[in-house]
Fold:
Amino acid sequence: MNKEETLKEVKKAELNILSTVDDFCQKNNIKYSLAYGTLLGAVRHKGFIPWDDDIDIWMTRENYNKFIRAWEQNPVQGYILQNTDLEEDFSQNFTKIRKDNTAFIQTEEEKTTNYHKGIFIDIFPLDRVAKTPSKIAVQKLYAMLTMLFYRKYAPPTEKGLKKYISGFFLKIVPKSKYENARKYFENKYLFLSGDVDCSWLSNSTYRDLSIYYDSDMMDDYTFLQFEGRNFMSVSKWDHALKMQYGDYMQLPPEEDRVWKHHPIFIDLNNNYEAK
Structure:
């Protein structure tokens, strides 16, 4: 298959995962929302952004934890729930649902890791911003350190103070204690979450820590069409998209319309086995 045909098949598999997650959430009374490029695609294109494959959803931390508990009690056959608590080599602070008997590998390093590498969608938890400016500053620090010890490395794009702090903590904490450090800073971060009057934020990337969504954004939900099926979205989807993208209906320049994930290996029928 050429690149366009492969992208089409990957999108089909991702849509299948999203439909499975949607059915599971409906059965278990779990609220979620299309998020990021998936929400943008639903509003602007009624489906995938044409030149990309990407499915992301948000859940409040309460619904996120409920989802994980429900899935662990009644896993859906043919799909894999993946996070660091279940697969230690998986180094992200969110959850993926992967389609079994598929493979989607983005880097050479990923080939050597010990976790499932199937086609996936991402599930991101949202938390409340802390109640005061001083607590917000500390919360951001804890969030940054949580991400650092999930990843176990400092992203090469970091600069300035973030780069210094990341390097400092990775040096002073023994590698054997990274998991303990991750849990310690994550608990500190979650403890500072505010109440219903506080804004929402995602701690999935450093950039997300500077985006505060309205305190009532996760209160009400609607349905948006995505590839011919209706999926759950926050009713304040316009607010969410403006916070993320500004003038979100404006198409990017043609040179920026590229496949985001840049996979180096795809198998639509088999799990990856290291050679």
